[in-house]
Amino acid sequence: MSEKNKVEADDSSSASRLRISEIFYSLQGESRSSGYATVFIRLTGCPLRCDYCDTTYAFKGGEWKSLDDIIAEVKKYNTKYITVTGGEPLAQKKCIDLLNLLCDEGYDVSLETSGALDISKVDVRVSRVMDLKTPASKEESKNYYNNIELLTSHDQLKFVICDRNDYEWAVEKIKKYDLLSRCEVLFSTSHQQLKPQVLADWILEDQLAVRFQMQLHKYLWNDEPGR
Length: 227
Ligand code: SF4
What we know:
alpha/beta; 6 helices; 9 strands; 23% strand; binds iron/sulfur cluster
């Protein structure tokens, strides 16, 4: 059984539980709320295998936790910002319930998702930070393009750029789907693969109205898990 199917099978046999890789408190390193202290809830499992993945440790393992226990853990921290991430959090169906619950508790919730799974059931109060996987990720074929029409100004669409070909591919997608009129568009580099200055220059040369970002946590703490 694949890891994805295994997680889903386990999920269906458990009432209100999720398999959690880690819950930690750190500074948000990317997206619109970059720099704010945030609680990260990392769910185990991902059906993708991006070439540059920096969270392969979340593909397996973790611990089953009830939704109540997750909420209790989150409440230990003094912040309104919560990010549900992975892995691919939507690979576990109960993730939808967790997102609803966090919104009901009054948190400012974001969801980091690969763009490969349907986002239509995600609570509209959640800011969806969705990837479109570029050719160099080697997972471009997994993009679920029907998601794009669901994105609003509350959401963010992220391209992780590895090289010039990825950049040109992303620019083409922006035009094709009129992405800048739908939601905020984020461009970041694949760490170690493309210098941030190079991407910044390309964006300025083309006067592209995207939001350039650097992964703050990698500059502060390198790739240390749980930071
Ligand atoms: S979607 Fe995210 S967690 Fe899954 S393989 Fe790609 S980078 Fe890693």
